[in-house]
Amino acid sequence: MKPLVSIIIPCYNCEKWLAETLESALAQTWKNLEIIIVDDGSTDNSLAIARSFESENIKLIHQQNRGASAARNQAFHESKGDFIQYLDADDLLASDKIERQIQLLGDSNSEFVATGEWARFYKTPSEAVFKSQPLWRNMSPIDWLVCAWEGEWMMHPGAWLVPRNIAEKAGFWNENLSLDDDGEYFCRVVLASQGVRFCQGAKVFYRSGISGSLSASKSRTAWESAFHSLELRTSYLLARENSSCTRHACATAFQRFIYNNYANNVPDLIRKAEDKVEFLGGSEIKPIGGPRFQRLAEIVGWKSAKKIQLVFNDLKQIF
Question: Which parts of the sequence belong to the Glycosyltransferase 2-like domain (predicted)?
Fold first, then answer.
């Protein structure tokens, strides 16, 4: 019998996009599917839209608002699939995405996880341009994490296909995290596997530019979550391999956190990150910015340049 795939969709106020997302799940060429939607206390019309799709293989769970991680955990608890496909309620899967990855991994006893191609779009998926990235290849767990953190590369949550046995080893999503909850979770997934297998042609479309999205959050809670996620991720990697290579990747990740958040009025988190960088042996990466930022940084230093950049961006939003 063909393996069952559980497509897990957490949903909070996604009435504009949920139907299209569900249609992309139903259009999969791999037909042995169950789709589990968890409405996380939506205040718009999302719940009604989800109910209109309920069927024998589409299950709807409604809960009070507890966050995306809690919604995913509830769905995983209810799921029966041999493979797990996470899909946000505003993103889209190519019709053959899951089938390609199952063909690559083989049966559900695989000790490997699959990734695929991903690209952003803002209005229609036809805008998406799939550009090869360094993570788009087969790698061992350690090499994959080092590559991701050294170069600040990401793998979209919908691009993964995870055998259930690996998902169970990795454990549940951390419900104490908001921003970068996926980074922390998939770090554990990678380390619970024997390696990552990249599947050419298995595509996911990442809807971007949504006002109020978690990835664009600029709250104190979001920054604390991102820092805690980074602390956890680096501790997992170093527990597996504490080498000059892994320590440098961890130091680079903390240094990048400093650059990205220096002007965000979180001096306590910056100090903690600086202590981590020093303890891990330092990182030589430089702050990223356009030509104007780089010229300004040469004159006043990168810290002052970051503050000036933040003020300038705030003024642009006002005027």
Answer: 6-124
